[in-house]
Amino acid sequence: MPFYVTITNLQGEEIKVKVSVEIFELFEEERKEIARLRKEKERHAFDEDVESDIAGYLHSLRTTSLEERAMQRQELKSAVDVIKSCTPVQQRRFYLNRILGYSFTEIAAKEHCSERAVKYSVDTVIKKLEELKNSL
Q1: Residue from 125, 128, 133 nearest 98 by CA
Q2: Measured between alpha carbons, how far is residue 32 from residues 11, 37, 43 in Å?
Q3: What pLDDT sits at residue 122?
Q4: Phi/psi of residue 17, each to 5°?
Q5: What Gene3D superfamilies does UniProt report for this protein, alphabetically (predicted)?
Q6: Are 31 and 25 contacting, i.e. CB atoms less than 8 angstroms apart?
Q7: What is the CATH number of domain 51-134?
């Protein structure tokens, strides 16, 4: 039984070529894979549309008023002022731990000190921020 595949030549014309069973199976596998990828892309494109619609709706629920944004800015400014009132070592260690995500061990190794000293510095800043939070 002869097997044929359709290919496109250099002029863009489709031609049928007689091939062996192995070559036919390769072309058939590729055709199925392309069809599978196309269907998957169609499915996910639809899912992305739905997800973006939901995300937009949830974002619209969370939009803050001008007053709320002004209060948030003031709270942030107060927090920055509290952090600035700490020593440069405390500021640096707090930044490395809480903002950049370094562990106490990593910071201690960088600064050639004990983990306990790093933890104490970070905890001091956190304590001051909690005091600020409780006073608001």
Answers
A1: 125
A2: 25, 9, 16
A3: 94
A4: -125, 135
A5: Winged helix-like DNA-binding domain superfamily/Winged helix DNA-binding domain
A6: no
A7: 1.10.10.10
Q: Which of these, 91, 83, 79, lies nearest to 132 by C-alpha position?
A: 79
Q: Where are the domains of the chain?
A: 3-47, 51-134
pLDDT at 45: 55
Q: In angstroms, rounded to a whole number, what is the distance separating the alpha carbons of residues 70 and 79? A: 14
What local confidence, expressed as pLDDT, does residue 117 receive? 95
Distances (CA, A) of 16 to 8, 24, 27: 9, 12, 13
- Tokens 């731990």 correspond to 97
DSSP state of 61: H
∠ CA 126-99-127, rounded to 5°: 0
Could you read off the pLDDT of 91-136 as tens digits, one per residue? 999 999 998 889 999 999 999 999 999 999 999 999 999 998 888 7
Query: For residue 123, what pLDDT is reported?
Result: 95
Does residue 52 register a pLDDT over 60?
Answer: no
